[in-house]
Design brief:
A hairpin with an 8-residue loop joins strand 5 and strand 6. The strands form 4 sheets. Strands 1, 4, 7, 8, 9, 10, 11 and 14 form an 8-stranded antiparallel beta sheet that branches. A two-stranded antiparallel ribbon has the order 2-3. The chain has a two-stranded antiparallel ribbon with strand order 5-6. It is built from 9 helices and 14 strands. The chain has one domain. It is an alpha+beta fold. Helix 1 crosses helix 8.
């Protein structure tokens, strides 16, 4: 079933003793706002986790393939769209549009997040109905640096240089604790253009709640979803500005806490929704719920 409502949502997640999103231009240090010290996680990082979850759980579904995946050669998949009968029979000017439509039908992440497919044989560009902001920590974070050792070397030359001691030194960066907030937007009008439907939306909600459990690594420490609060508008255009809705969700550090180390150090308060009677707020996940 196609989407008939606009959605805006607040997604809260945390990290403990891990690096939620390293910056390759800064030696893989956790991303941070240089002026405020607030931690950052890019939208691309979260989209990657959603893609990985869908690829893991929907491998048998031909309409939920993933376009941007590890070791993918994108032009090959774009060129494949032009080999389909429904595309080959089109006139030259219509081939790109037909190829775009075929890509949307077969690749979940294209009809969800959009994609640039104007390379290769050209399948055009798609603006997806789901857009995410950068996630920002509620409070400033501190990046801890740790020295680590490996009791092995990679080459004989390194072994000779170590004079029999095969100890190799390295470094690792972690955030002791950080609670991050992300805002998301879902356009029903753009969903109509890509074919994103209610079943796709339910899979997206599931991915946000479960993706961290299937993306564990030593470098990421403990990452967990803590809240998913969704504003559902009564129609496609929406009934209130997203910014005003987001302001009604207040997350703050408890007065008695100086250095946060768990979600229990925070409170989440939901303001009155009386101003927006045509917007329904529902909680798909809320760690702080009574």
């Amino acid at each position: 079933m196609s989407l008939v409502n606009r959605y805006d949502f607040v997604f809260l997640f945390d990290v403990k003793d891990g690096n939620p999103n390293g910056d390759p231009d800064a030696g893989n240090l956790p991303r941070v706002d240089a002026e405020t010290g607030m931690g950052l996680v890019t939208d691309v990082c979260l989209k990657r986790k959603v893609r990985n979850f869908v690829q893991l759980t929907q491998a048998e579904n031909p309409s939920r393939k993933i376009f941007v995946r590890e070791k993918a050669i994108l032009n090959q998949m774009i060129d494949e769209s032009h080999e389909q009968e429904e595309v080959k029979t089109k006139e030259k000017g219509d081939k790109t549009e037909a190829a775009k439509r075929w890509m949307c039908e077969n690749y979940y992440d294209i009809r969800t997040f959009g994609a640039v497919m104007s390379t290769g044989k050209n399948a055009g560009q798609v603006r997806g109905p789901i857009q995410l902001t950068f996630s920002r920590s509620i409070d400033p974070i501190v990046a801890s640096e740790h020295s680590i050792t490996r009791m092995a070397v990679t080459t004989e030359k390194e072994a000779e240089a170590q004079s029999g001691d095969n100890r190799t030194m390295g470094r690792k960066f972690t955030v002791p604790y950080g609670l991050y907030r992300c805002h998301g937007f879902i356009s029903a009008n753009l969903a109509d253009q890509t074919g994103f439907d209610d079943d796709d939306l339910q899979l997206f909600w599931q991915a946000l709640q479960q993706m961290f459990d299937h993306d564990r690594s030593a470098s990421r420490g403990e990452m967990n979803p803590r809240a998913l609060l969704v504003f559902k508008h009564s129609d496609k255009l929406g009934n209130a500005p997203a910014g005003d809705l987001f302001k009604s969700i207040d997350v703050k550090l408890r007065d008695s806490v100086e250095v946060p180390r768990s979600p229990d150090d925070y409170t989440l308060e939901i303001g009155s929704q009386e101003k927006w009677p045509q917007v329904e707020l529902f909680s798909m996940l809320n760690y702080w719920a009574p």
